[in-house]
Protein backbone atom coordinates (compact mmCIF):
# COMPACT_ATOMS: atom_id res chain seq x y z
CA UNK A 1 0.00 0.00 0.00
CA UNK A 2 1.14 3.56 -0.74
CA UNK A 3 0.59 4.61 2.88
CA UNK A 4 3.15 2.04 4.04
CA UNK A 5 5.79 3.86 1.98
CA UNK A 6 5.42 6.99 4.12
CA UNK A 7 7.94 7.59 6.87
CA UNK A 8 6.72 7.68 10.47
CA UNK A 9 7.23 11.44 10.55
CA UNK A 10 5.06 11.86 7.44
CA UNK A 11 2.35 9.68 9.01
CA UNK A 12 2.60 11.75 12.19
CA UNK A 13 2.05 14.97 10.22
CA UNK A 14 -1.01 13.51 8.46
CA UNK A 15 -2.47 12.39 11.79
CA UNK A 16 -1.85 15.72 13.54
CA UNK A 17 -3.21 17.64 10.55
CA UNK A 18 -6.34 15.48 10.68
CA UNK A 19 -6.83 16.21 14.39
CA UNK A 20 -6.24 19.92 13.79
CA UNK A 21 -8.54 20.17 10.76
CA UNK A 22 -11.39 18.16 12.30
CA UNK A 23 -11.47 20.13 15.54
CA UNK A 24 -11.20 23.48 13.74
CA UNK A 25 -14.11 22.78 11.37
CA UNK A 26 -16.33 21.29 14.08
CA UNK A 27 -15.65 24.26 16.37
CA UNK A 28 -16.53 26.72 13.60
CA UNK A 29 -19.81 24.94 12.81
CA UNK A 30 -21.05 24.67 16.42
CA UNK A 31 -19.72 28.11 17.37
CA UNK A 32 -22.99 29.81 16.46
CA UNK A 33 -24.60 28.42 19.63
CA UNK A 34 -24.15 30.39 22.86
CA UNK A 35 -24.41 28.19 25.95
CA UNK A 36 -25.02 28.92 29.64
CA UNK A 37 -22.40 27.17 31.75
CA UNK A 38 -24.33 27.80 34.98
CA UNK A 39 -27.60 26.32 33.75
CA UNK A 40 -25.75 23.41 32.14
CA UNK A 41 -24.24 22.62 35.55
CA UNK A 42 -27.62 23.07 37.25
CA UNK A 43 -27.39 26.42 39.04
CA UNK A 44 -28.63 29.96 38.46
CA UNK A 45 -26.61 32.51 36.41
CA UNK A 46 -24.09 34.55 38.41
CA UNK A 47 -25.44 37.89 37.17
CA UNK A 48 -22.47 39.90 38.50
CA UNK A 49 -22.16 43.62 37.69
CA UNK A 50 -19.32 44.44 35.26
CA UNK A 51 -17.12 47.56 34.68
CA UNK A 52 -18.45 47.83 31.11
CA UNK A 53 -22.11 47.76 32.15
CA UNK A 54 -24.76 45.06 32.12
CA UNK A 55 -24.14 41.84 34.08
CA UNK A 56 -21.69 38.98 33.76
CA UNK A 57 -22.94 35.43 33.39
CA UNK A 58 -20.97 32.37 32.32
CA UNK A 59 -22.12 32.36 28.70
CA UNK A 60 -19.75 31.20 25.95
CA UNK A 61 -19.79 29.83 22.42
CA UNK A 62 -20.15 26.08 21.98
CA UNK A 63 -17.19 26.32 19.61
CA UNK A 64 -14.89 26.95 22.57
CA UNK A 65 -15.57 23.38 23.72
CA UNK A 66 -12.89 21.74 21.59
CA UNK A 67 -10.97 24.80 20.43
CA UNK A 68 -8.06 24.28 22.88
CA UNK A 69 -7.29 21.05 21.00
CA UNK A 70 -6.64 23.13 17.88
CA UNK A 71 -3.94 25.20 19.59
CA UNK A 72 -2.41 22.24 21.42
CA UNK A 73 -2.13 20.29 18.16
CA UNK A 74 -0.67 23.40 16.51
CA UNK A 75 2.01 23.59 19.21
CA UNK A 76 2.94 19.93 18.72
CA UNK A 77 3.18 20.46 14.96
CA UNK A 78 5.36 23.53 15.57
CA UNK A 79 7.68 21.46 17.74
CA UNK A 80 8.22 18.74 15.12
CA UNK A 81 7.62 20.53 11.81
CA UNK A 82 8.42 24.16 12.57
CA UNK A 83 6.72 27.41 11.64
CA UNK A 84 6.35 26.36 7.99
CA UNK A 85 4.35 23.33 9.06
CA UNK A 86 2.02 25.50 11.16
CA UNK A 87 1.55 27.98 8.31
CA UNK A 88 0.68 25.18 5.92
CA UNK A 89 -1.98 23.64 8.16
CA UNK A 90 -3.35 27.06 9.13
CA UNK A 91 -3.91 28.37 5.61
CA UNK A 92 -5.06 24.98 4.31
CA UNK A 93 -7.55 24.64 7.18
CA UNK A 94 -8.83 28.19 6.58
CA UNK A 95 -9.49 27.19 2.96
CA UNK A 96 -11.40 24.08 4.05
CA UNK A 97 -13.39 26.10 6.61
CA UNK A 98 -14.45 28.54 3.89
CA UNK A 99 -15.35 25.61 1.63
CA UNK A 100 -17.38 24.01 4.45
CA UNK A 101 -19.34 27.24 5.01
CA UNK A 102 -20.06 27.43 1.26
CA UNK A 103 -21.42 23.87 1.14
CA UNK A 104 -23.46 24.36 4.32
CA UNK A 105 -24.94 27.62 3.02
CA UNK A 106 -25.81 25.95 -0.31
CA UNK A 107 -27.56 23.15 1.60
CA UNK A 108 -29.80 25.69 3.35
CA UNK A 109 -30.97 26.97 -0.04
CA UNK A 110 -32.18 23.57 -1.23
CA UNK A 111 -35.96 23.07 -1.14
CA UNK A 112 -36.89 20.54 1.58
CA UNK A 113 -38.98 17.43 0.95
CA UNK A 114 -42.58 18.00 2.10
CA UNK A 115 -42.72 14.76 4.11
CA UNK A 116 -39.53 15.67 6.01
CA UNK A 117 -41.05 18.98 7.12
CA UNK A 118 -44.36 17.29 7.94
CA UNK A 119 -43.03 14.39 10.05
CA UNK A 120 -40.93 16.78 12.13
CA UNK A 121 -43.72 19.25 12.93
CA UNK A 122 -44.77 17.63 16.17
CA UNK A 123 -47.53 19.04 18.38
CA UNK A 124 -45.90 22.51 18.45
CA UNK A 125 -46.02 22.84 14.61
CA UNK A 126 -42.21 23.04 14.47
CA UNK A 127 -40.65 24.04 11.13
CA UNK A 128 -37.46 22.00 10.90
CA UNK A 129 -36.36 23.58 7.62
CA UNK A 130 -36.48 27.08 9.10
CA UNK A 131 -34.53 25.85 12.12
CA UNK A 132 -31.98 24.16 9.84
CA UNK A 133 -31.48 27.36 7.88
CA UNK A 134 -31.38 29.54 10.98
CA UNK A 135 -28.68 27.42 12.60
CA UNK A 136 -26.48 26.61 9.63
CA UNK A 137 -26.84 29.73 7.49
CA UNK A 138 -23.76 31.52 8.71
CA UNK A 139 -23.77 35.25 8.06
CA UNK A 140 -20.90 37.10 6.42
CA UNK A 141 -19.84 38.45 9.79
CA UNK A 142 -19.47 35.01 11.34
CA UNK A 143 -17.46 33.74 8.38
CA UNK A 144 -15.16 36.79 8.38
CA UNK A 145 -14.86 36.71 12.16
CA UNK A 146 -14.05 33.02 12.25
CA UNK A 147 -11.48 33.03 9.46
CA UNK A 148 -9.83 36.30 10.56
CA UNK A 149 -9.54 35.24 14.19
CA UNK A 150 -8.35 31.77 13.20
CA UNK A 151 -5.54 32.97 10.93
CA UNK A 152 -4.39 35.86 13.14
CA UNK A 153 -4.36 33.75 16.31
CA UNK A 154 -2.57 30.86 14.60
CA UNK A 155 0.15 33.15 13.23
CA UNK A 156 0.63 34.76 16.65
CA UNK A 157 0.64 31.36 18.35
CA UNK A 158 3.41 30.14 16.03
CA UNK A 159 5.48 33.31 16.47
CA UNK A 160 5.25 33.31 20.28
CA UNK A 161 5.95 29.57 20.39
CA UNK A 162 9.03 29.97 18.22
CA UNK A 163 10.25 32.97 20.25
CA UNK A 164 10.00 31.08 23.54
CA UNK A 165 11.61 27.96 22.05
CA UNK A 166 14.56 30.01 20.74
CA UNK A 167 15.19 31.16 24.31
CA UNK A 168 14.64 27.84 26.12
CA UNK A 169 15.67 25.28 23.50
CA UNK A 170 14.10 21.85 23.85
CA UNK A 171 13.45 22.41 27.56
CA UNK A 172 10.28 23.75 29.19
CA UNK A 173 7.66 22.30 26.85
CA UNK A 174 4.95 23.62 29.16
CA UNK A 175 6.23 27.20 28.88
CA UNK A 176 6.30 27.48 25.09
CA UNK A 177 3.08 25.51 24.57
CA UNK A 178 0.99 27.07 27.34
CA UNK A 179 2.48 30.56 26.96
CA UNK A 180 1.84 30.78 23.21
CA UNK A 181 -1.64 29.30 23.61
CA UNK A 182 -2.72 31.73 26.34
CA UNK A 183 -1.62 34.76 24.31
CA UNK A 184 -3.05 33.63 20.97
CA UNK A 185 -6.35 32.45 22.45
CA UNK A 186 -6.94 35.82 24.10
CA UNK A 187 -6.72 37.46 20.68
CA UNK A 188 -8.83 34.73 19.10
CA UNK A 189 -11.57 34.98 21.73
CA UNK A 190 -11.95 38.76 21.47
CA UNK A 191 -11.54 39.00 17.70
CA UNK A 192 -13.96 36.29 16.58
CA UNK A 193 -16.80 37.48 18.82
CA UNK A 194 -16.13 41.13 18.04
CA UNK A 195 -16.26 40.71 14.27
CA UNK A 196 -18.98 38.07 14.07
CA UNK A 197 -21.49 39.31 16.62
CA UNK A 198 -20.60 42.93 17.44
CA UNK A 199 -19.31 44.51 14.22
CA UNK A 200 -21.62 42.54 11.88
CA UNK A 201 -24.26 41.39 14.37
CA UNK A 202 -26.60 42.99 16.87
CA UNK A 203 -24.76 42.29 20.12
CA UNK A 204 -24.05 45.01 22.66
CA UNK A 205 -20.50 45.86 23.75
CA UNK A 206 -21.22 44.25 27.13
CA UNK A 207 -22.33 40.99 25.51
CA UNK A 208 -19.17 41.01 23.36
CA UNK A 209 -16.94 41.45 26.41
CA UNK A 210 -18.82 38.91 28.52
CA UNK A 211 -18.74 36.05 26.02
CA UNK A 212 -15.17 36.85 24.90
CA UNK A 213 -13.93 36.77 28.49
CA UNK A 214 -15.78 33.54 29.23
CA UNK A 215 -14.39 31.89 26.10
CA UNK A 216 -10.88 32.90 27.11
CA UNK A 217 -11.38 31.83 30.72
CA UNK A 218 -12.44 28.37 29.57
CA UNK A 219 -9.51 28.09 27.12
CA UNK A 220 -7.11 29.33 29.82
CA UNK A 221 -8.22 26.66 32.31
CA UNK A 222 -8.20 23.87 29.71
CA UNK A 223 -4.73 24.89 28.47
CA UNK A 224 -3.38 24.59 32.01
CA UNK A 225 -5.13 21.27 32.65
CA UNK A 226 -3.88 19.84 29.35
CA UNK A 227 -0.23 20.66 30.07
CA UNK A 228 0.57 17.18 31.46
CA UNK A 229 -0.94 15.67 28.31
CA UNK A 230 1.61 17.58 26.23
CA UNK A 231 4.41 15.71 27.97
CA UNK A 232 2.62 12.41 27.41
CA UNK A 233 2.12 13.33 23.72
CA UNK A 234 5.81 14.24 23.31
CA UNK A 235 6.88 11.01 25.01
CA UNK A 236 4.62 8.93 22.75
CA UNK A 237 5.75 10.77 19.60
CA UNK A 238 9.44 10.44 20.45
CA UNK A 239 8.96 6.72 21.06
CA UNK A 240 7.06 6.39 17.78
CA UNK A 241 9.65 8.31 15.73
CA UNK A 242 12.56 6.47 17.35
CA UNK A 243 11.59 3.32 15.45
CA UNK A 244 12.37 5.10 12.16
CA UNK A 245 15.79 6.15 13.45
CA UNK A 246 16.52 2.59 14.51
CA UNK A 247 16.11 1.26 10.96
UniProtKB/TrEMBL annotation:
Function: Involved in the import of queuosine (Q) precursors, required for Q precursor salvage.
Native species: Aquirufa antheringensis
Membrane topology classification: Multi-pass membrane protein
Keywords: Cell membrane, Membrane, Transmembrane, Transmembrane helix, Transport
NCBIfam families documented for this protein: queuosine precursor transporter (TIGR00697)
Listed InterPro entries: YhhQ
Transmembrane segments: 12-35, 88-111, 140-161, 173-200, 216-237
Protein name: Probable queuosine precursor transporter
